[in-house]
Design brief:
Blueprint: E1 3-4, E2 7-8, H1 9-14, H2 23-35, H3 39-52, H4 57-69, H5 73-87, H6 93-105, H7 108-121, H8 128-138, H9 145-169, H10 173-186, H11 191-203, H12 207-220, H13 225-237, H14 241-251, H15 259-271, H16 275-282, H17 287-290, H18 294-306, H19 310-323
Antiparallel strand pairs: 1-2
Organism: Aquibacillus rhizosphaerae
Keywords: TPR repeat
TPR repeats: 23-56
Length: 337
């Protein structure tokens, strides 16, 4: 064997220590990417850290913070709640982080409850000043019993809405249907629930039942935007051109005031192939009010591509993937064709 300075090559190779990344390596990489605001890369590193060292609660907490940054507040709280259930008050900062996420979701009672828990349990906590400021911003104060009940009912409705929205955005139709059925019983006056229900029902394969529901509701309320948009989508999916034209033509002259309604019409136009009109609607929307909707980025990007705004389409899709990791599981819209 040839040697170098009296040491064989075999001996040198034997002394090489292989580098095997551990959880700390992945965690450090994730934090570096997070500090550079490269959230998609940070999530990949943190997930590797958690896979490598699943018992390191700090890794889970840091991953939850990334989900908070991209607006996935429910996912963040699921992670933090699990940390608290397994480690208790050893990770008391979780209470503040959960409160902050609830505040973003508009669940004020829950936000207040977790903020007070944090302030009680962490006398000298790192987030104490932030928690005190959050409590001031919530501005709930001491309400009487009737007001407390009203807040609890409002929070319960928001929880239903957010959870149903989560499943609908991910096309998890069966889960959405089960939740919306319950929601319609608990909150029978909440109009949107029944239309989201028929939408989920249609795409789960129960097309005729969904259509009959919407036709019945439209007869009761002829100006219903929910019914008109749903029926336009349903008949477009069924390739029923005559009935599709009937409903889409009435929507083309409707210009609502509220952003959620504007988004509903824009996505309906995009879903049904009217990309130019959809794009014109999307560019008038206020993104800050709609960035929590994966569908906003999905269909805006799709529409931009079809009106030859490729750079805009790519920009929207990349931003959407950062804010909504679920989009990364889907083919890029224009590759689906």
């Amino acid at each position: 064997m040839q040697t170098t300075e009296g040491i064989s090559i075999e001996t040198k190779i034997d002394k090489v220590i292989p580098f095997i990344p551990d959880g700390d390596f992945y965690f450090t990489k994730g934090v570096e990417a997070f500090n550079k605001r490269k959230f998609d890369i940070a999530l990949k590193w943190l997930k590797k850290a958690v896979e490598t060292s699943p018992d390191e609660a700090v890794y889970h907490c840091q991953m939850s913070i990334i989900y908070t940054e991209i607006g996935s507040y429910h996912t963040a709280n699921q992670i933090l709640t699990k940390v608290l259930s397994e480690y208790g008050d050893s990770y008391v900062d979780c209470y503040y982080l959960i409160a902050n996420n609830y505040a973003h979701l508009g669940l004020l009672q829950d936000a207040k409850k977790y903020t007070l828990s944090y302030l009680e349990k962490a006398q000298d906590g790192d987030f104490r000043e932030d928690a005190e400021n959050l409590l001031t911003v919530l501005d709930i104060g001491d309400e009487d019993d009737d007001d407390d009940w009203a807040f609890e009912e409002e929070d319960e409705l928001l929880i239903y809405q957010e959870t149903a929205f989560y499943h609908l955005e991910r096309r998890e139709w069966d889960q959405a249907i089960a939740l919306l059925e319950e929601m319609m019983v608990v909150f029978p006056e909440h109009i949107a629930a029944k239309h989201e229900y028929s939408f989920a029902l249609f795409f789960s394969g129960q097309e005729e039942e969904a259509i009959n529901m919407e036709l019945e509701w439209l007869e009761e309320e002829p100006q219903s935007l929910f019914s008109q948009t749903n029926l336009a989508v349903f008949y477009s999916e069924q390739k029923n051109e005559a009935l599709f034209n009937k409903y889409i033509s009435s929507l083309q002259n409707v210009f609502p005031i509220h952003e959620q309604q504007k988004l509903r019409i824009a996505t309906t136009l995009a879903r049904t192939g009217l990309y130019k009109e959809a794009y014109e609607r999307f560019i008038t929307l206020t993104k800050s009010q709609l960035k929590g909707h994966a569908s906003y980025f999905h269909w805006f990007s799709f529409s931009a591509y079809h009106v030859n705004k490729l750079s805009k389409a790519i920009e929207l899709w990349e931003e959407g993937c950062k804010r909504h990791p679920v989009l990364r599981k889907e083919p890029i819209p224009w590759v689906q064709e």
